[in-house]
Amino acid sequence: MTEADIGQVAGLLALVCAAYACIGSVIGAGLPKRWNRRPALLRSASRAVVATGILVAVSTGALLYALWTHDFSLKYVADYSNLEVAPAFDISSLWAGQAGSLMFWCLLLNAYAIVALWQNRGGRNSELMPWVMAALMGYQTFFLFLINAVVESPWLRYDPAPSDGQGLMPLLQHPTMLIHPPSLYLGYVAFSVPFAFAIAALITGRVDDEWTRTTRRWTLLAWFFLGCGLLLGGNWAYNELGWGGYWAWDPVENVALMPFLTGTAFLHSIMIQQQRGMLKVWNMVLIITTFALTLFGTFMNRSGVASSVHSFEGSGLGVPFVILIGVTVALSFALVYYRLPGLAAVNRLDSYLSRESAFLFNNLLLVGIAFAVFWGTIFPILSEVLRGPAGKVTVGAPFFDKVTGPLFLVLLLFMAAGPLLPWRRASRESLRRNLLRPLGVGAAAGVMGLVLTRNVAASLSFAVCAMVVASVVVEFYRGTRAKRRATGFTWPRALVHLVDSNHGRYGGYLVHLGVGLVALGVTGSTLLKVDSQALVRLGQSFSAGAYRVQPLHLLQEQVPGVGPAVTAVVRVTRDGQQVAVLRPRLVQYQSQGGQWIAQIALRSTPLQDIYVTLSQTSSSQKEVRLHVLVNPLVWWIWCGGIVVILGGLIAFTPSLPERRAALVLAGAVPVVAR
Fold first, then answer.
1. Nearest CA to 395 among 526, 261, 251?
2. What is the per-residue pLDDT for 82?
């Protein structure tokens, strides 16, 4: 029996086990009210969840083995790998095609289901868990059905087998592609767990705060990986695609951003529910919307309705996904309507000058941005459906920039003010004490920005970014000072103990700091960039902002296993002084039909990037076309992204009180009061 036979049989058995786990969980929980709960059937269904995971792992492992050993008799292997690429890219070939990426999706979904089962062992959330498993395995059944019956099978064979495969697209042969797609998948799929708990809470009527407490870390996990995927995708686009940007408002980029925005809103609003007993209906709506947006993103990526460098070719998945999304949304909101009496708020909003009010406006802005992105993404598709291909309306970057830019700016304002406001009601004295310093820093930054750039929009954005950074610094300073006075610790030790006392709070502050830095980089690179293109003879120069760019000569070379390449040696000067010598090049990929791919040259500093692309060379090799961008502050996007990741990691890990409580419950060591 070959690896293809093993993988195919394992995939079919996994489909059967997933369906049994879903149906067994529903019947075992006693869905028909005349039936009693059946513990034995529930245990059997739980074992079926584990069995499904093992079978999916075997099927995925068989495909990975075929890719690693270059079994070109399999069509999937021949389509997405070849003998020339590095072995690491044989692994990334798994998610390069429809069937392989769906298998990876199923592997992650089952892994999350098994972890959720393990976390809730011993009777924890015993009323919810059957419905959680039913929901998760129901979606698992859907995806396994697609692999086995709808998409082109990964086990189709060539006879005779070719001697080599087509391989990955050159743009995908980049180290980031080993991390970026898996990170997005990890984020997309992880949102399934909080959604499943929300559905279980609605079905059972357990709509108190317990389901939000149980799923907070699952939501953080999904948010963290989705954020990492977005950051890595932007970095890949900036360094690999050669157009000088990191975000093009591409449809597949947009559908990854939308659940990140609504997931962020959910993380903020569940704090209000847990602190004040408010926004219960809103939280249900948010997590349902977030999960529906992950399904919508999968639909856009796989149906072929959107043209994108990120998307797969159409393969008949559009209709099944539309049905799935429609059923999910209809049933979920029907359950919310049914449980409305139990979702009533315990408290009311006491004042508009309060933390919960700031969080509420924060939520509305995040959802508003997500809706604007959704509408701009879906409108071209709707126009084509209603008016035909000739009547298709294109929505480009200017629309998204004009609509979302001001909303993001206001969002940053609430991000700066919200954490400094008290719960329930803020007094005039507390407003003066908490907001005066950030406002002063923001005003100073705005004036300085206006003097240096003479750009009003950029100066206003710099002011708001400075307020965000200042508010975070103020909170860390005040907390560290109080901890130092109470304990006598040194400043560094007091800071560490402060953060360790409440990972959720101070990890969140770090996320705010990182977002402020990212916004600083986006402002500079969007509003202050210089874009120059020129066809020049070797030895001549042209201007790009304050710089002079001069191509000196061309180098002809051969890239082993790829093809010929042409490198331009480019000197960049400022005020007659050499700043950098950059070497952009064009590489011809023989395995891709002789396609020429540009590889950029980049000089990056915290103040600005000089970004050079070799677009064309003349037949005489005496002229070149260069595309040069001077992108201010892009460095801060990547720096801020790292701070966001660090903050997310801290917020996800348990703080000192949680670790102590876990030790007490485990009976390991007693807690000693300090």
1. 251
2. 85
pLDDT at position 589 is 83
pLDDT at 674 over 50: no
Quickly count: other Cβ atoms within 10 Å of residue 475's Cβ: 20
Percent of residues in the chain assigned helix, strand, coil, to nearest 5? 65, 10, 25
Tell me the pTM: 0.92
Name the packing angle between helices 397-417 and 456-487 (round to 10°): 30
Please, where are the H alpha helices in 280-354? 280-302, 318-338
| Helices of type H across 339-427 | 355-387, 397-417
C-alpha angle 520/186/268, rounded to 5°? 55
362 contacts: CB under 8 Å, gap ≥ 6: 265, 268, 411, 414, 415, 418
User: To which residue do tokens 């809706």 refer?
Assistant: 371
Q: Is the pLDDT of residue 344 over 80?
A: yes
Outline where 30-74 has alpha helix (H).
39-68
298 Cβ neighbours under 8 A, 6+ residues apart: 105, 188, 321
585-589 vs 577-582, strand pairing mode: unpaired
Are 418 and 359 within 8 A, CB to CB? yes
Residue 646, pLDDT above cutoff 80: yes
Helix (H, G, I), strand (E, B) or coil at 216: helix
**Whole-number Å distance between alpha carbons of 56 and 153:** 15
pLDDT value at residue 359: 83
Long-range pairs, 104-108, Cβ under 8 A, ≥24: 104/60, 104/182, 104/185, 105/143, 105/185, 105/188, 105/189, 105/298, 106/14, 106/56, 106/60, 106/140, 106/143, 106/144, 106/147, 107/53, 107/56, 107/57, 107/60, 108/185, 108/186, 108/189, 108/190
Q: Return the CA Rg of the chain.
A: 27
Task: Work out the percent of the chain whose per-residue pLDDT is above 70.
Answer: 93
- Tens-place pLDDT, residues 205-230: 998 888 999 999 999 999 999 999 99
Q: Which single residue is written with the structure tokens 């149980």? A: 214
Instruction: Outline where 528-584 has alpha helix (H).
Output: none
Give mean pLDDT, residues 52-58: 97
- The answer to whether residues 154 and 67 touch, using CB atoms and an 8 Å cutoff, is no
What's the mean pLDDT in 382-390? 76
pLDDT of residue 451: 93
- At 98-149, the pLDDT tens digits run 889 999 999 999 999 999 999 998 878 889 999 999 999 999 999 999 999 8
Reported for 523-526, long-range contacts at CB under 8 A and 24+ positions apart, including other chains, are 523/458, 523/461, 523/462, 523/465, 523/633, 524/458, 524/608, 524/631, 524/632, 524/633, 524/634, 524/636, 525/246, 525/609, 525/631, 525/632, 525/633, 525/634, 525/637, 526/401
User: What is the domain partition of the chain in residue ranges?
Assistant: 1-173, 427-527+636-666, 531-632
> What one-character DSSP code corresponds to residue 84?
S
Residue 38 has pLDDT above 90, yes or no: no
Query: For 488-623, where are the alpha helices, taking DSSP H only?
Result: 491-501, 503-527
Nearest alpha-carbon partner for 651 in 267, 108, 116: 267
